[in-house]
Amino acid sequence: MQKLLLAVDKFSTVIGQAFSWLIVVLTLLITWEVFSRYALDNPHPWAFDVMSMLYGSVFMMAGAYTLSKNGHVRGDVLYGFFPPRLQAGLDLALYILFFIPGVVAMAWAGYNFAAESWAINEHSNITANGPPVYPFKTIIPIAGTILLAQGLVEIVRCIVCLQQGAWPSRGQDVEEVDVEKLKEMVHVKDEDIAQLGALQPAAAGHKK
Amino acid sequence: MRKEVWFGLSIMAAVVLAAFVLLPAPSQMTNGHLGLLMLALVVVAIMLGFPTAFTLMGMGMVFAWIAYRSQNPGLAVQQTLDLMVQRTYSVMSNDVLISIPLFVFMGYLIERANLIEKLFKSMHLATARVPGSLAVATIITCAIFATATGIVGAVVTLMGLLALPAMLRAGYSVQLSAGAITAGGCLGILIPPSVMLIVYGATAGVSVVKLYAGAFFPGIMLASLYVVYVVVVAKLKPHLAPPMSAEDRRVPLPEFAQIVASTVSERVLPGLIGAIKGKRNSAVPLRSLLNHLGIAVLPALSVALIMGMVYFKVTAPLVEEASEGVVAMGAAATGVPEEEEKSVSGLAEPEEAGDLKLPPGAADTKAEAASEPSAASTQATPAEPVKAVATEPAAKAVAEPAAVPQRVPPPMSFWVALASCAVALAIFYAYFSFARLEIFKMLLGSFFPLAVMILAVLGTIVFGLATPTEAAAMGSMGGLLLAAAYRRLNMTVMRESVYLTAKTSAMVCWLFVGSSIFSAAFALLGGQELINQWVLSLNMTPVQFMILAQVVIFLLGWPLEWTEIIVIFMPIFIPLLPHFGIDPLFFGLLVALNLQTAFLSPPVAMAAFYLKGVSPPHVTLNQIFAGMLPFMAIQVLAIFLLYQFPAIGLWLPQMLYK
Predict the structure, then answer these.
(1) Contacts of B9 in chain A (CB under 8 A)
(2) CA B73 to CA B79: how far, in whole Å?
(3) Which regions in chain B score pLDDT beneath 50?
């Protein structure tokens, strides 16, 4: 079971990470476009559309990746203090109540939306001869489906947690605030911090 | 159970109770009441801890379906599906939100360029003589680093590792140290380029450019209020922040500098020149002497360069000059580095341009003040009088009748400014010892690259040279170059930054997808009208409304995060603003300041938890909270100041975008 969970995690992660490289493409593209416009006096009319497509693809396709790493913002005023079983129970209920209907509806509606766009061979109308829009619109059902798969995995996780009383493990990934890495970066060791504790009582006594 | 749980549960109970009391019985419920019920439910659901984006999406879908069904049951499902996909697509092709991944990417890159250690050390030495210097240096470092990266957690953690031990070792009180770190680390949310302002701009339909221009001075004001508070505390209660011993203050000099300082002269210029002549010092390598001489004359060179440029601009034929005046005024106001000024030439601002002559002094003193922080910080005096002198003639300057084809003679104010710059430089060099040269070198390696980058990104946005998206992309490019310049750009750093950016952007943008479906449902149900009617029926004055709105946002800041507050509740407040004649831009600035307090309000302030995670065991969470309280009070004071003097925020956008 755990293997299957991690396999789907892996899948979402690989897709999300692959698409996240589009950020570098986006950076380079805009930098080049700015240079081309100001220095070479040669703006490209398609640049604007392509920019928004890159951005849209990045965040849509990274949705499942973010979910698999538990990265979507939660109101954790209470949640963080709950025991794991209660967390899992709440999550399970809300996944079924909100997540599944919402994402299914989005993927389904997105499928029709994209199909229509393919049918009329839709091109962007922001500029004349805009680039085709249908591949971009196809992102919605694809991202929705992957997100749904990831959501099902999360539901299984909740059930496992309800049975075992502890959250099953997740795949490793880079963290925004990775204390160990930051410590290493600024050359601070645990001993230094501990030493500080030894030093403090004297200073505290002096203060009072 | 723990008190946090009780706290959360009581808020939840209060919301449910309020919903029960305020809403009519189910039999008399209209759609509008359903909308209000939805709002109450969503607050409760968010507090249950489910990912907010999907809570909003699911709930929005259900209520949108209810709303459509009450109109036309047959079409309800199709309409709901259409609404969802339309809303999703509009977020995907939103031209404001594109900047988010780019700014986030820039932030991660800069964070990983690992400038913070150098920055803190050099700031610390540069402010050595100020009372509470370590705390002051902490706040300045935080402000700059947080502005460039925008990542509260990482900044607080890093400063907790660097500054907290330093301050505790120097005998600072735990509270003051913790307060300075947490308050400083949160400044990045407010000072542009910040993601929060983009999110607000996208939600409220306010131009991000104006928000950036508007938030600049309030952000600086808040940072300066923090600094002032720390200095006052250190002055009044020295035992909380003991001054540094002369030993700590001493800057280790390189060998050659010691030789030169002891044999030739303490001061840099005479010392180096004397040594280069080589009569007394053949032991010192010429190369390092020349290198240092080059660094030492940098301030003078940059002043000369700017002055030359200004001279060139002032004396240029009048047509160009007219537009130049305004630009330079703006440049002076924001302290945009010289690169900006050089490239600004086409920004037409006809009304102002008519009666303004180029005030070179203003532009210059700023640039100069920026270029010699070692002098300005240790000797606050030299820069001050110059500013006064320079701005006065600038203000007096009147347009000269011209349209002369050849060069116009520069106005008097130019010469006054030039003279005052020369005097300032002379004073600067008179005090420019080898120790200060070392500090200057350190600042050159840490402070200036960041400051120039932030100001360049902001400058291009604010002066209309580039859209926020383009400036954000250039910022990311700058982050890449910066990381490369500090030898930190490798595949690991790149990969981590890219992945983190994808996750953060997905988090924010999916929240947008959810909230736009949610707010569509809210509008469909007519909840907005009900709130409008209710608020208008209260017959509040604009002031009362403002206070009410800010109090509500302040209270929401306890249980919710700023992203949630902005995307869910701003759409409710914004339509009310026109009734009271309040500028959404001004409201946004107040909200941005207000949400700062959300980061520092116990018991859920995340900054405190980040700091606790890296502090020595004897530092308790309560001490950190206690340290944050005075800074929270300062934030409230800042909101009050901004409210009393809206010009703090509105002056710059009004001047630039009339």
Answers:
(1) 78
(2) 10
(3) 319-404
Cα distances (Å, whole numbers) of residue B150 to A31, B214, B453, B454, B459:
21, 18, 14, 12, 18
Q: Which amino acid is at B309?
A: M
What is d(CA B178, CA B172) in angstroms, rounded to the nearest whole number? 10
**pLDDT of B377:** 40
pLDDT digits (tens, 9 = 90+) for B84-93: 888 889 888 8
Q: How far is CA B405 from CA B325, B353, B400, B409, B414, in A?
A: 18, 19, 14, 12, 20
Joined together, the tokens standing for residue B106 give 């820039």
The answer to whether B646 and B586 have CB atoms below 8 angstroms apart is yes
Contact B97, B198 (CB under 8 A): yes
pTM of this structure: 0.80
Distance CA B174, CA B565 (A): 32
- Nearest-CA residue of chain B relative to A109? B81
pLDDT in tens, B120-153: 888 888 888 788 888 888 998 888 888 888 788 8
* Mean per-residue pLDDT over chain A, rounded: 81
Q: Pick left, alpha or beta for residue B464 (phi over 0 → left; psi -120 to 50 → alpha; otherwise beta).
A: left
Plot region of B477 (φ>0 → left; ψ -120 to 50 → alpha; else → beta): alpha
Does the bond joining B131 to the residue before it have cis omega, within 30 degrees of 0? no
Other C-beta atoms lying within 10 Å of the C-beta of residue B250: 12
The alpha carbon of residue A1 is apart from the nearest alpha carbon of chain B, in Å, by 24
Region A172-180: mean pLDDT is: 74
Q: In this complex, is the C-beta atom of A113 within 8 Å of any C-beta atom belonging to chain B?
A: yes
How far is the alpha carbon of A2 from chain B, nearest alpha carbon, in Å? 22
DSSP line for B449-495: HHHHHHHHHHHHHHTTSS-HHHHHHHHHHHHHHHHHHTT--SHHHHH
SS3 B314: helix
Which amino acid makes up residue B512? F
User: Which whole-number Å values give the CA distances from A123 to A137, B94, B133, in the listed order?
Assistant: 11, 17, 60
Nearest to B49 by CA among A5, A100, A88, A69: A88
Binding-face residues of A in 32-91 toward B, CB within 8 A? 33-34, 48, 51-53, 55-56, 58-60, 62-63, 65-67, 69, 71-82, 87, 90-91
How far does A49 lie from chain B, in Å, by closest CA?
A: 8
A50-A56-A59 Cα angle (round to 5):
140
The residue of chain B with its CA nearest to that of A74 is: B51
Which neighbouring-strand residues pair with B141? Answer: none
What DSSP designation does B252 have?
P
CB B431 within 8 A of CB B369: no
Cα B593 to Cα B187, B189, B625: the distances in Å are 9, 9, 19
**CA-based Rg of chain B, rounded to a whole angstrom?**
27
